[in-house]
Design goal:
Layout: H1 11-19, E1 24-28, H2 32-40, E2 45-48, H3 52-55, H4 67-80, E3 85-89, H5 98-110, E4 116-120, H6 126-134, E5 139-144, H7 150-153, H8 163-179, E6 183-187, H9 191-200, E7 205-208, E8 216-219, H10 221-224, H11 247-260
Parallel strand pairs: 1-2, 1-8, 2-3, 3-4, 4-5, 5-6, 6-7, 7-8
Helix pairs in contact: 2-4, 5-6, 8-9
Bound molecules: 3-methyl-2-oxobutanoic acid.
3-methyl-2-oxobutanoic acid (KIV) binds next to strand 6.
Length: about 270
């Protein structure tokens, strides 16, 4: 059975897409108008990422983004959506304990209109993930390059290249799934490692800089539209040239490329 084109995307749809090996497309959005364009292009999941700290607010990192700012942008995006599944990032330090995570995730759901919240981190986050899952809050975990830990990581660099790091990441992914995570984003990891994680997990694994063998792909909208002051990362693609400069066309081209698995190429992977 295929997803009827306009019925709202749910976690059940996303799990069924994984089972059918049908690639899931995800894009970030921060406002209602572009969220509507993305929704109309057939993107399954929209992420209000804390990347908004960098691409909207012009900051150096995502660390200063506040929960109130996330709620403000989530509300705008939610108003633009008709079909897509809405995921909202929990900003830095908004989930440092399980109780803080529960309080703040509830705000993102009640005030922001989120269908799912996303948080960065491995096994140490499993208490928070379990607490949210127990309360019926869907959680997307985020492993690999975790931008909120940029100062600890010493920069935005590929993660999991060494065997020991790769095994730790796989262990973290299994722990988070067991704690109740419903989805996993893998950022900047070798394609071979992402393929192993995707194989071992029953929840959808969405990659960004994680190669073609994930259950789906996510990119920052502004990279897809070729708007980037600090240089577009190697793992993303500017879809504007092939769309003749149309915003709608670029977003549609991204969705097509994810569905046809022509994105990412080996050159766009690690
Ligand atoms: O904040 C964000 O946009 C993200 C994506 C890059 C996955 O976390």
């Amino acid at each position: 059975m295929t997803t009827p084109e306009r019925s709202p995307v749910t976690l059940r749809h996303l799990r069924a897409m994984k089972a059918r090996h049908e690639p899931i497309s995800m894009l970030t959005a921060y406002d209602a108008s572009l969220a509507r364009l993305i929704d109309e292009a057939g993107v399954e999941c929209v992420l209000v990422g804390d990347s908004l700290g960098m691409v909207i607010q012009g900051r150096e990192t995502t660390l200063p983004v506040t929960l109130d700012e996330m709620i403000y942008h989530a509300q705008a995006v939610a108003r633009g959506l008709r079909r897509a599944f809405l995921i909202v990032d929990m900003p830095f330090m908004s989930y440092a304990t399980a109780e803080t995570a529960l309080h703040n995730a509830a705000r993102l759901m009640k005030e922001g209109g989120a269908h799912m919240v996303k948080l960065e981190g491995g096994a140490p986050q499993s208490d928070s993930v379990r607490r949210l899952a127990e309360q019926g809050i869907p959680v997307c975990a985020h492993l690999g390059l975790q931008p909120q830990s940029v100062h600890k990581l010493g920069g935005y660099r590929v993660q999991g290249r060494q065997d020991e790091d790769a095994e730790r990441l796989l262990g973290d992914a299994l722990t988070l799934e067991a704690a109740g995570a419903d989805m996993l984003i893998l950022e900047c990891v070798p394609a071979s490692l992402a393929a192993r994680v995707r194989e071992r997990l029953s929840i959808p694994v969405i990659g960004i800089g994680a190669g073609p063998d994930c259950d789906g792909q996510v990119l920052v909208l502004y990279d897809v539209l070729g708007i980037s002051f600090s240089g577009r990362p190697r793992f993303s693609r500017d879809f504007m040239p092939e769309s003749g400069g149309s915003l709608r066309g670029a977003i549609q081209a991204y969705v097509r490329a994810v569905r046809e698995k022509s994105f990412p190429t080996a050159g766009e992977s690690f």
